[in-house]
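hey so u asked for the seq, here:
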Amino acid sequence: MEATVAERGQITLPKAVRDALGLTKGTLLKVELDGSRIILRKSVDDAISKARGKFALDGFGSSEDAARAVRDEE
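ran it, structure tokens below
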């Protein structure tokens, strides 16, 4: 696969790559250099931020209340 660098330094990743990695508009990528290679990695922080708020707190008013309850059980 190939990608061409546009005038402003932008590239378009092939659709097969975006689909395989679940990359969507706004996904953060970490850019690293390894000699003459460019390495793009999906940002862990981005994955965490997308998951934030998607889990039920099972009756707790806040995540802090849930954390306190878990700590009290230990």
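The radius of gyration is 19 Å. The first strand starts at residue 29 and ends at 34.
lmk if thats what u needed
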